[in-house]
Amino acid sequence: MTNLYPVRFDPQVKQRVWGGDALCRNYGKQECGEAAGESWEICGLQGDLSVVSNGFLAGNDISEITEVYMGDLVGEKIYEKFGIEFPLLIKILDAREMLSVQVHPDDTLARKRHSAYGKSELWYVLEAEPGAVIYSGFNRDITADEYLEAVDRKRLPSLMNRITPVAGDVFYLPAGTIHCIGGGVVVAEIQQASDITYRIYDWDRKSSEGHARELHNDLAVDALSFTQYNDPVTHHQVIPDVPEVIADNAHFHISLAGAEGVAIRDYSLTDSFVIIICTSGSLEIKYGDTEEKLKKGDTILIPAITDLITITGDRGSAFLEVYIP
Fold first, then answer.
1. Structural domain boundaries of the chain?
2. Pick from 60, 198, 209, 213: CA 20 to 30 A from residue 284's CA?
């Protein structure tokens, strides 16, 4: 069987009522349209399967190559658990306007209601305009009744942690965390492979036809964590060639590292695919005869069977390194 190599996929750009033009203007995504809110970089959800764009596997989708290469591609234990369903969804989001206030169910509730996985996620802020805002978690312990009253009186934001983000901020959002991205923010999002969202409040926004978007408050009540979220945001220093762990849980392990000059990364003991997301500058990934160049916002998947790769970066370059522990 032909050797695997670092795999790239065609981004899938999604139109959103709150989207803008940064995905095309700053990140080189194609076919953005008027309101490009999300670029799905790697996705294994049926109906939105990512398609390989490089090498001899080009044109095959992620389920097809997982079915062929199994543990060599994703890791033996990961394949045993998930089969050909890729367990993570990687996105770049451009919020030109406020997103809705929302929450995602955990695995237990999502399995019961939707026969699907829950959704814990992490945002890494790539850009943030002055005065932009992100809401993450409640700012004190509340009851379900207090929450419902705040929704009814349209004062829910007053109960949430309100943060002014800067590039490099990290927001970890375990399932059950109420959250919202404000306008003027671009983030890289790493999440469980789930597209289940309960929309709670949409800032009284209307569609072009004058209709309000559907809300899901009856479903959200059982999904929400009503306890205070004390660590809504962290910030990490980028150190060349020294990965710093920014998230480590059952769903994903994520590190941030600088890349100046040439670095060798050894993935031989990981037993997982590794996803590299360029967050600043540019990178060159080398493995055997394969060379791939990444700019800010680009993503590549390193197969689990890979041992040593070489990452070369210009001064100021950095990347996220994602795998399943």
1. 12-235, 244-323
2. 60
